[in-house]
Amino acid sequence: MNAISSPHAHGARPVGRVMLLVMLALAPATLAGFWHFGWPAITLWCVTILTAIGAEAFCARLADRPAAPMVADGSAILTGWLLAMSLPPWAPWWIGAVGAVFAVVVCKHAFGGLGQNLFNPAMAARVMLLISFPVEMTQWVAPHAANLASGLDPLAGLALTFGGSAPDAVTSASLLGHVKAEASRGLTLSQSLTGHWDLFGFGLGQRAGSLGETSALLIAGGGLFLILQRVIGIRIPAAFLLGVALPAALAHFLAPDRYLPPLTHLLSGGVMLGAFFIATDYVTSPSTPRGQWIFGLGCGLLTWIIRSWGAYPEGVAFAVLLMNAAVPLIDRATRPRIFGRRRDGRSLTAP
Amino acid sequence: MLSTTAPARSALRRLLQRWGAHPEGRKHPAAGTEITVLPLPPQLILPLAQHIGAPARPLVIAGQRVLRGELLAEAQGAISAPLHAPTSGVVLGIADVPVPHASGLSGAAIVLEPDGLDEAIPIEQSDPFTMEPAEISRRVAAAGVVGMGGATFPAAVKLALGQKNRIPTLILNGGECEPYLSCDDRLMRERAPEVVDGARIILRAIGGDHAMIGVENNKPEAIAALRAAAADFAEVEVVPVPSRYPMGSEKQLIAWLTGREIPAEGRSADIGAMVQNVGTAAAIHRAIRFGEPLTRRIVTVSGGAIRTPRNLEVRIGTPISALVEFCGGTTAPVARWVMGGPMMGLSIQSLDIPIIKGSGGLLALVESELATRPEPGPCIRCASCVSACPIGLVPLEMAALIRSGDLKASVEIGLKDCIGCGTCSFVCPSQIPLVQYFNHAKGELAAQDRGKMKQDAIRQLVEARDARMEREAREKAEAAARRKAERERAKAASLTSKAASAAPARNADSPAITTEETTA
């Protein structure tokens, strides 16, 4: 039977093109990361992405399906890329490799492949790595000592990523880690922040932190590009940023020496990457408009709570995973009102 | 009137509405060419079922000569429409021919051979504004006018609805939101007075006081022409609406123009509105003013493979091959023939299929226009379908439920509210045939309902039979017991009265026994 159903036209960007646009949006922040953290960062990025592709091909083989088209949709590359962005730039190669395998095999294909996973693969892998390898996952380098010009040459970079560990001289603390450590020593914010606050440098990524998270402004720029291209909506990023900024502003207003100001929160750690690139992942975020607001606000609020009162200095990954788990519930509770019906599903009546 | 006095709240709500899609218009070059009359084809094929409702019943026999406008088949049933001869000629017979229907099956049709004279039955001109509303709908019914936008619902049935309910607002649908199609556009540009007059006639028929002609703002010439034609009539207003698919859907157009939603379990009359297509209005104008039945329509012939896309005025029953030939044939391999628009049209397999009352377009699409990929990809939950659905459904979830066979759950989240517009399928980056799932599921549900009704009927019959058998058995047993008692009584009586006289006692008892025996 040769029944062809309407519509006889299609207007959407194919999935592969969507992934490509996301990668394009990630490129500036990634290049900035390469500049600031030098050859080890480039090596780690390559290892992570190549492993993700390999893992995807392996899973395709397991499922008896051709590997090439599955890899070609770009979703595994993107998963590897996002994971690499969230890793310490001088982490050893196996951190990226183990994380990528975990993200693709366990977090994605074990759930049924593209579109089926409950948790964001990159964030689940990051959390797994953080819990399993806390030392490797919290060693940061200072960008001025590590950048492409003054840092290691390519060979030394390879040697570092595949062999040794970062020399102590160039390690540094991330801002959030520093604040948490100082707070535990009883210092107030104004004491611990002295000499650590440089908005411009922050925006471009001149500070210790994850490979692709430090240049907050470049990430936000990429995110805005995606919104303008209508690849992502504005609801989740806006709600995420509000979810962080509102409680941060309130707390900072009430106790300025105990809580960081909202702008510091927004520009540090993984908030920008989380708001524009992680929480907006189609598969693991709600599909209803109201659900997207709730999801974004929840991610932001949880991030701020974990940062302010949790044991970990950074909370984006945890917050996103927690909200991922709530997505089916949110979707169910926030279905749009159906035309001609009231919210409770009963038909409107004639006036 | 409503659109200008609408409160700011409703203006804001319109602004925030994000449903729908913006398919490439592709209206040109067809939209730029004047309506051309297609010459008479050698044969006309007139399916008896060109409308929603019962098929018409043929009144002619093979060999009979008919004139243009003569009744060929009469309406049967409450919802039906008659069929008239589009030209003069000889009826060749009633045959089983391929018809434009989703099933691809054939149907009964009257085949007419034109004699080229195009002789018409005498026509009577009349003034609708001296006519009773009921008389208007009677004449519209007699002229076989049906919804020309594609729905083909008998127009007179709608008009009669207006005589039963208070319907102040008439909305003429000039949306034409389907890509490629420009038949309504050309009609509004070239015959605006007919459309406006049709609107006024309908208003009179339904007792309405205000008509709004909603036209998508990508047709400025049509808007200008209609405004000029409606300048003298305060009750007719031309309102531009945004170009967005499916703006031409009844529910969306009413909501946009009046701010009111048709209740999910109601119809447009419940909110005091009625929608008719602009083509239907023009057809009603001709039916009432000139007594001319519906025997022709405007068809857009377009698509990447057509040499000269254009709008043709075509006799109903013309095989589509004649239209294609007139437009210079095809210049590229045709990947798909479509009757109607690309969003909701019908894929057809044969060029022998005739143009019927609801055919507004004939498209010869090339591969690149279809933009299909070989196989649907997995759903990535991008929610494009959710924001596009004009009804507020969550198509991805409904499709997942249908795939897993849970029709009941898909109904609970709104399957029956789906209008089948296909916007979800259009915007899906994985090209999942969402609307196909929904149409399939609706068909499945209808079949289940029919099956259930059948089962219920059988169960009732069986129960009735069981009850009857039981009752009969009971009555039999009771009768037997009674007879036994009677016999014993009779025996006892005869024993006691034996000595005296046997005959009178026997006579007195016998009628009762006979009666009981007949009942048993």
Q: Which features would summarize this protein structure in a list?
A:
heterodimer; A: 351 residues; mainly alpha; two-stranded antiparallel ribbon; 17 helices; 62% helix; B: 520 residues; alpha/beta; Fumarate Reductase Iron-sulfur Protein, Chain B, domain 2; 6-stranded mixed sheet; 4-stranded antiparallel sheet; 17 strands; 40% helix; 16% strand; disordered N terminus
Q: Work out the helix count of chain B.
A: 17
Uncertain parts of chain B: 1-6, 505-520
How many separate domains of chain A? 2
Give the overall shape of chain B. globular
Number of helices of chain A: 17
Oligomer: heterodimer
| Estimated share of beta-strand residues of chain A | under 5%
CATH topology of the domain at 373-486 in chain B: Fumarate Reductase Iron-sulfur Protein, Chain B, domain 2
Derived from helix and strand composition plus strand pairing, the structural class of chain B reads alpha/beta
What do these coordinates show?
The complex is a heterodimer of chains A (351) and B (520). Chain A has helices at residues 15-62, 67-72, 75-85, 93-108, 121-132, 134-137, 143-146, 154-162, 175-184, 189-192, 199-204, 216-228, 235-254, 262-267, 271-278, 289-309, 316-333, and strands spanning 140-141, 171-172. Chain A is an all-alpha fold. Chain A has two domains: 14-173 and 208-212, no CATH class; 215-333, no CATH class. Chain A has a two-stranded antiparallel sheet. The radius of gyration of chain A is 21 Å and the shape is globular. The model of chain A has no long low-confidence stretch (mean pLDDT 87). With 520 residues, chain B is an alpha/beta fold. Chain B has a domain at 373-486: Fumarate Reductase Iron-sulfur Protein, Chain B, domain 2. Helices cover 40% and strands 16% of the residues of chain B. In chain B, the strands form four sheets. In chain B, strands 1-14-13-17-15-16 form a six-stranded mixed sheet, sandwiched between helices. In chain B, strands 2-8-7-4 form a four-stranded antiparallel sheet, with no helix packed on it. In chain B, helix 6 (192-206) packs across helix 7 (220-229), helix 6 (192-206) packs across helix 9 and helix 16 packs antiparallel against helix 17 (502-519). Chain B is globular. Chain B starts with a helix and ends with a helix. Classes of the chains: A mainly alpha (351), B alpha/beta (520). Chains A and B meet through loops of A and helix 12, helix 15 and helix 16 of B.
